[in-house]
């Protein structure tokens, strides 16, 4: 069995000694960045790209603070790191707001995938759209639709050309597909299918040639004709054939300690050979933060990772505040960022959190 290791990390890892001489206490590793999104937004697609004024954090779509079907949004925001300023930019060119979409940067473009719409009667529809967003011009270009529209999926960039969409929800149920998009030719193909139970709201990252996919929500049968959802406590490693990006060798790895989490912020860091995970909810919930079982979801403050070389999980300390309802984690320089989300009261936030990891 792999062991759970401890890494020394911190942005402001301050040793505090009380007046009565107690041992130093480890402090949270993250801080609130010195800027925030223009409005509270959650379940938003996020990416980092080189904008006109340098490295810029981007947010697309999501849920506004009212948390009703009318609060789904297609708004987009750009946060320039160097001047610590956020502004609204051109909205995603769709008629209705989108929840659970995903974004990744490949080359000089941000690729935005899918999401779902919510009707007044509660109907939710997975959308097929794919856009390339140009940070230099703030223009969107419609690309080839997803073969199978999915939302709440994991989206992973590879080799500066390919993008994997792993599992996710499609209209009436989860799918085990691994859809592979080629940014060079604007074409789709299918990679080796995900072997785990199909899920939505899972998290993952890809570093070098390996990906880690963990947690999420599975359909656990029907009760009175309605789907019952349950957290899926598993983890899978997928190693990509370097000669053929469609071929993935999957194997189960030990689930991370602490129980499954829903909609964690995650990314792969190739420089460190690490897949990072932060925050996430303790109870599968609908878009309003209330669990499918009627119990409000509570976020976690954990930050942990999977060391691909050591083939084991590693605990990385805590966030300054619990956070959940994320669609991605982004990195600029040596700092990681979480944009928006929900707090411990299931309130939508405009906060941007920032942290670093010491070697």
Q: What can you see in these coordinates?
A:
The protein has 359 residues and is mainly beta. The protein has a five-stranded mixed beta sheet, with no helix packed on it. A four-stranded antiparallel beta sheet has the order 2-31-30-29, with no helix packed on it. A four-stranded antiparallel beta sheet has the order 3-4-5-6, with no helix packed on it. The protein is globular. It has strands at residues 5-6, 30-32, 45-51, 54-63, 72-80, 85-89, 102-106, 109-113, 116-118, 124-126, 130-134, 139-142, 154-158, 162-166, 169-170, 173-174, 178-182, 187-190, 203-207, 210-214, 217-223, 226-231, 235-241, 244-253, 265-269, 274-278, 300-307, 312-323, 330-332, 335-339, 352-356.
Key words describing this protein structure:
mainly beta, four-stranded antiparallel sheet, 0% helix, globular
Terminal residue distance: 25 Å
Q: How many strands?
A: 31
Global mean pLDDT: 91
* Envelope shape: globular
Main sheet makeup: 5 strands, mixed
Relative strand content: over 45%
Radius of gyration: 19 Å
């Amino acid at each position: 069995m792999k062991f759970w290791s401890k890494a020394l990390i911190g942005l402001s890892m301050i040793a505090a000694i009380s007046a009565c001489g107690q041992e130093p206490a480890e402090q949270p590793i993250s801080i609130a960045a010195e800027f925030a999104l223009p409005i509270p937004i959650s379940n938003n697609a996020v990416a980092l790209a080189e904008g006109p004024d340098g490295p810029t954090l981007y947010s697309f779509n999501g849920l506004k603070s009212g948390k009703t079907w009318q609060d789904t949004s297609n708004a987009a925001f750009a946060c320039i790191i160097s001047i610590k300023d956020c502004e609204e930019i051109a909205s995603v060119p769709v008629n209705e707001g989108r929840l659970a979409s995903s974004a990744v940067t490949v080359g000089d473009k941000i690729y935005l995938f899918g999401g779902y719409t919510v009707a007044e009667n509660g109907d939710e529809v997975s959308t097929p759209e794919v856009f390339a967003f140009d940070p230099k011009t703030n223009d969107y270009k419609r690309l080839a639709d997803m073969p199978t529209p999915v939302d709440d999926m994991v989206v992973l960039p590879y080799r500066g050309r390919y993008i994997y969409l792993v599992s996710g929800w499609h209209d009436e149920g989860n799918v085990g597909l691994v859809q592979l998009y080629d940014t060079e030719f604007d074409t789709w193909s299918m990679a080796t299918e995900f072997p785990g139970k199909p899920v939505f709201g899972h998290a993952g990252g890809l570093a070098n040639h390996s990906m880690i996919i963990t947690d999420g929500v599975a359909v656990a049968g029907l009760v009175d004709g309605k789907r019952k959802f349950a957290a899926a406590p598993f983890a899978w490693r997928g190693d990509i054939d370097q000669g053929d990006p469609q071929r993935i060798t999957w194997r189960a790895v030990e689930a991370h300690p602490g129980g499954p989490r829903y909609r964690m912020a995650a990314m792969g860091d190739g420089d460190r050979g690490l897949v990072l995970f932060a925050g996430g909810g303790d109870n599968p919930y609908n878009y309003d933060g209330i669990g499918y079982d009627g119990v409000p979801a509570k976020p976690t403050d954990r930050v942990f990772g999977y060391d691909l070389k050591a083939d084991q999980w590693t605990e990385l300390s805590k966030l300054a505040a619990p956070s959940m309802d994320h669609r991605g984690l982004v990195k600029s320089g040596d700092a990681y960022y979480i944009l928006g989300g929900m707090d411990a009261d299931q309130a939508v936030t405009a906060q941007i959190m920032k942290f670093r990891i010491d070697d």
